[in-house]
Amino acid sequence: MNPSWTDTWNDLLARASSVVGLDPGVLWPALAILVIVLAWAPARRWGRTLVTIVHEAGHAAVGLMVGRRFLGFVVSRDLSGHAVTAGKSTGPGRVATSWAGYPAPAVLGAVVVLLALNGWASAVLLLGLVLLVVLLVMSRSVRTVLLVLLVAVLTGALWWWGGPWRDGVVAGVGLALIVGAWDSLRDVAASRDPQQDHRTLAQLTRVPAGVWLASWFLVDAVATGVVVLALRDLL
């Protein structure tokens, strides 16, 4: 007999709200993903796609919180990105919006790992799907639409079929975000592009660009340290 809509809805609610204490053995998928990302260059490169999406979402989220309008974003062929918000061209809101991109992957990665380690992976995936739908609507190129759609499909598949591996895989994705945050910080520190965020911040505030780089380094370091301590307690 085919399941009724009531059965399907109840199943969706159960999947979304399931909170199960993590068996430390489920950490191995997370560590396996971390090793793959660190050791296999193609995996690390494609992981940057998710990092770029989160980076631009960080700009957009903080921009909305300070009263700016989010007009859209694009992911370029080299997997860099660009988000467009509208509002005052100077002031604290513009500074906060410009600063938020680079620390976003590390902060989100740490939050995802901690939630997954405490059995909230299903809820994390469901919330991620909702946010990806919003980002899909705000995508402003065919490449961006396809990449966001791909991430959304993989997220939905993991939410629906992840089973006992779901927590570990979600924690692994969080670890990959932290690795990508360090990679992007290294790249921006080496870049000579005058349009990079730390140089934009220097122009907006007269605070040296190196200070903004240091602030991102500090956030990444704190996020990494929190995750290392959490993993150590479970190993």
Automatic annotation (TrEMBL):
InterPro entries: Peptidase_M50B-like. Keywords: Membrane, Transmembrane, Transmembrane helix. It comes from the Bacteria. The chain crosses the membrane at residues 26-43, 107-137, 144-162, 210-231. It holds the Pfam family Peptidase_M50B. This is M50 family peptidase. It comes from Actinomyces naeslundii.
